[in-house]
Amino acid sequence: MSIKIGDKFKDFTLKNHKFENVRLNDFVGKQNIVLLFFPFVNTGVCEKELCSTRDNMGLYNGLNAKVFAISVDSAFSQKLWNDKFNFGFDLLSDFNKEVSSLYGVLEELWVPGKWNYKGVSKRSAFVIDKNGIIKYAEVLNDPGKEPNYQAIKNLLESLR
Q: Is 51 a residue of the active site?
């Protein structure tokens, strides 16, 4: 079941690309949070999405928003990808697929008939306010689509 607007956030702890534990609850109450789930490192649309986010980090920082990007890739793969692109925000490894399941964005069979990968995060975006309430939830069924960045930015501006 997907998390929806108005729900309380679901806490988790994941390893980042620096092999450090990151607990979501440590940031709630301090700033707004943007969670970006994406299917795979080193793929075209994922690269475009995360590079766009990186290029707009000044805006996110100015809106007091902490950004996390989550995939089922290992922290080792994420480290190599971050070394290449220097994203400037944490890539979190949901290697055991627990957080993607918790947030209702785990795709059981991704691109059936073409790839048939099991257990990949759907491209999704969530905004959590300082009170720990989900204020934005977008789950995309088409991995070729990107989240609505303008809607995310507008919401973050309204939370100032």
A: no
